[in-house]
Structures are given as C-alpha cells and as structure tokens.
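Q: Sequence in, structure out?
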Amino acid sequence: MGSPLTVDLQRLEPVDSPLTADEVARGLRLGDLAPPERPYVIVNMVATADGRATVDGRAGPIGNEADRQLFHHLRTQVDAVMAGARTVTIEQYGRLVRDPALRDKRRHEGLAGDPLAVIVSGRLDLPTDVPLLRDEHSRVVVITGSAARLEGCSAHVEYLRSDETTVDLGVALHALRSEHGVRSVLCEGGPTLNAALLREGLVDELFLSVAAKLDGGPDALPIVRGLPVAGAIGMDLVWALRAGSDLFLRYRLR
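A: Exactly. Output:
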C-alpha cells in the first residue's frame, strides 16, 4: 500500500500588520468586475460557529464591533444594497450610510454619497413605517410581482415589476444595470433571498463573518435557506482576517 496523501495546512496566525475596517473595504472597485449583463453581486452575512444567521430572530446580536464596522464600510464599496423585505423590516433598516464620513468615502471611490436601496418583496408585503422608507434622502427600488404601490413614503421609491409574485432575480438585476446604472450590489440577506440568488448563479462573492458563539436553537436560520441549490457550490478563499476570536472570510464563488 502506498503512503497516505500528505496535506499541507497553512497557519493563519499569528497575524501581523493589523488592518482597520476602512482599509479592508477600500478601493475594491467591485463594479469593474461586473459581467456585461448584470451587476457584480456580493453577499455579506454573519453567522455563529454552528452556522446560525439569527439569534432570537435577529442577526444584530451575533457580530462584534469589528463585524459592525466592516458591515458599514462594505456599504461604501457598492452602487446598491439589496435585502429582502423581511430583513429590512426585522432589522429596521434606515438610511443606508448615515455617517457623513462614510458618504465622503463613497464619493472618493467614485460612487454616489448614498447607495441605492433595493428591496425584494414578491407580494409587496412591506410596512411603510420602516425607517428607510421614511428617509427623504434614500432612493429605493422595490423588486416585486405586485401591482400595488407603497403609500406615504418620504423616500423616493421606484418599482421593478414582474408578472408573478416569484420574481425573476436575473431579469431584475439586468434591469438594475440597464435602467439604474448599477454595476455592483451588496446583498445582506435574508437566507431565502441568498438561496434564490445562488440557485440562479447570480452570486460572485461571499463575505462571511463567523462569530465565536454557539446558538443551537432549532428555529434559528442558516445563511442560506428555502430553495434547493443544485449541488455544493465551490468557493475560493480570497482572504481571512480575525478580530478577537471572530473570523472574517472573503470567498469568490467558482
């Protein structure tokens, strides 16, 4: 019998030359990577070490301060931020870039001060008291299969409509590119929207924060759920960072 195959493992620690969240998420130029027909799409999620994307129904309690800073700095690198209606409602989305310094950073990157907010809601099941829709500075595009309109919004709201409540995300992304000039999109979930994008081969990168926490709750959501994906999707690690005991991973999907 031959000798067993030897596998080389690379130690990621100790790490020198610390980086700030600003330095990690600066000059990514994600729009330059976009294919001709749609924006470049990255998904940003946080999860516990046992793969849970929510604790007590929300993602907010999972991450640490480094995760929160990286979350906000990633928003400075894209034309649009996308999320499902449930995520926007539960997490109470407001103006996507509230810090004037981060809006200045976006302008330095050649982007508008505020990203376009994109909400996916097949049935337009979206309460209008969400802070994002009350913010007069925000531009919102709702991807929906409903013919209804949201009334009483202070935000500027437009619609990309489909003929069915199950929206075609490929068509919607093409419209974001052709009609709104969007070349890069940051998707912040939730798990069903992530699954739908993955199923259609529309995700280019995954930014995953892994918190040094265990949840174990039987009802907690994973980062992808709801729609089957044909086979395991391979990914290549771009970089791995840590802050305290939490890990921050960037993957490029094959």
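The beta strands are 40-48, 80-84, 116-120, 139-144, 156-161, 184-187, 205-211, 235-243, 246-253.
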